[in-house]
Structures are given as structure tokens and as C-alpha cells.
Amino acid sequence: MTKSFLSPILKIGHLENQNLKLQVIAITILVLVFLSVLFAAWAPISFSIWIVFLFAGPHNWFEARYMLGRLPARTGKLLPFFLVSILGIGLLTTLYALAPSFFLSENESDHLAFYYSLWNSFFLIWVATLMYLRSKTNPRKSWDWLPMILFFLLGVNWLLPFWLNLVIVYGHPCMAFWILDRELKRSHSPFRTIYHRLIWIIPILITFLIAELIFAPDLPGADSLTLMISANAGDWLLSGVSSHLLVSIHTFLEMSHYIIWIGIIPLIGLRSLPWNLSSIPFANRGKSSFRFISMILIGGLFVVFALWACFFLDYATTRQVYFSVAIFHVLAEIPFILRMI
Hints:
Blueprint: H1 2-10, H2 20-42, H3 44-70, H4 79-105, H5 112-135, H6 146-159, H7 163-187, H8 189-198, H9 201-213, H10 224-232, H11 243-268, H12 287-313, H13 315-325, H14 327-340
Helix pairs in contact: 1-8, 2-3, 2-9, 2-11, 3-11, 3-12, 4-5, 4-14, 5-6, 5-14, 7-8, 7-11, 7-14, 9-11, 12-13
């Protein structure tokens, strides 16, 4: 059974149609993922601090560069889909970033459950609307079950308002695996079968973390940074679960997310070097479009360096602000994934 499971991986170097780039990608996945799970289990707080410091900004830049390369030059019949996407991302990001701090500053923490229920409802309706618009465009989809699932999730949300937010926290890193799968199907389909075998390493390693840390004591330290990282992993909701386990799993998934966006997708998903804008359809519409895309990407580089500087000067505050507004790129991935289906 083990031999059958590993045989596609062991044959990577012998596949006639696979080039050196694909072999390097497979080795990179294996080595970095195994190192990540070891560091996440051994020193989850330190590992979380360093990976966010090093990779949070760059992975957002590469993600934006990749998405720009996949957007059409003109919206055409997709205009309603893009309008709903942009409006939803802007509104939901603003509400997510501002409302919790307002409630807490006013000593109205009891109202947070109502707020999250309301925000989650807007989020679910927004996603359902995007799915409906997506189903009406080519290639068309038959999603007749959509209203039933929407009303079910809305009901669960109002009964358990914080759980959807926890799903987003742990589900967002996994979205990178889906995007990588779609990209492999699009541009490197022979490698996709091997990838489907490799991807099983992730749940296996998470099972290893659970087995090793389920009875581990909570993480030591009562400093604000440790408490913040533990809260980001959901220990405030899953109070009966070891914070060491939660932070380790969340950090491992985040690092896997960074590996895909910084180390793998740029190698297989970009049609040209990142600074070559000729592969971005919208940039080819004219000089003004080219300048607009250039400004976005150059501005993004300045944001990356500014984020590094802010992390260096005041890591805890910068991390708190970053995770408050990071919902923006989480939301941006949803319409992008729907267009790839």
C-alpha cells in the first residue's frame, strides 16, 4: 500500500514529459512542508512571528500579481460579477476592520456576537450572489441547491455566530491549495495527478500534530504577542483545546499558504517574469492601463517594504493591524476562485 501511494512521487524524475522545473517544485513542496510542521510543533510562537514578518507582505504582492495576470482586459458580460465582487470586498473589509474595535472601545463586547452574525450574513449572501452570477456565465453551472445551502448556513450562523469566522481563519490558507490545483489543470495538467498524491501529506501531518499535541499544556507566557497569536488561532473559542495545538496547526497552514504563493505559483502560474507586464491583459489595453497596473505593483512593493519596517519598529501593533485588514485579500480570493471553476 505504501509503495502504491508513493510510486507516483518516486517516479517524478523518470516522467518523460516532466521538465526540471516540475521536479524542483515537487522537492520544494516536500522539504519545506516537512520543515514547516517540525518548526510549527517545536516553536509555534517564534515560527509564527518570523513567517508573518518575512512572508506576509511578499505573498500578498505575488498573489496580486498572479490575479492581475488572470483578469480579462475587458469585463464585457462579466461586469455585474466584478461590480458585486468589488463592492462586497470593500464593504465587508471595512466592517470587519472597524466594527470590532469600536464595540470593544465602548465596552460593548456583548454585542460582538450580534455583529459577527450580521457580518457573516452579509458575507454568505455576497458569496451566494457571486455564485449565482457565476452560474449564469460560461461555462455555465447548475447550482440549484444554492438557496437551500444559503438559508441553512444563515441559520447555523445565527445560532453559532463565531464558528464561521473560525472556519475562515483555518479555511483561508487552504484556498491556496485549490488555486494551485486550478493552475496545474490549466497549465501543467501532467503534474496534477502527482500533486493530488502530494496534497495528502497535509492532512497526514495535521493528524501528526494532533496526536502529538492534543494533550500538551497551553503555551506559556502571558505577554500580549503570545495572547494575540493564540487568539488568532481561535483559543478564545476552543477553550478546551490546547493553545499549543491550535497555534501549531494554524501556523503550519499559514506557512503552507506562503510556500504556494511565494515559491510555487510564481514558477508555474506567471506567464512571464513578475516585472514583465506584457502578460497582464489589462496592461495591454493602452498606455494609461499600463501605467495604472505599474502603479499598483510598484505601490505594492512600497507596501511590502513599509510593512517590514513597521514590523521591525512595533511588531505586535503591526501584526494586529495587518490581521484586521488582511480579510481584504481573503475576500478577494473568493470571486477569483469562482471564476476558475
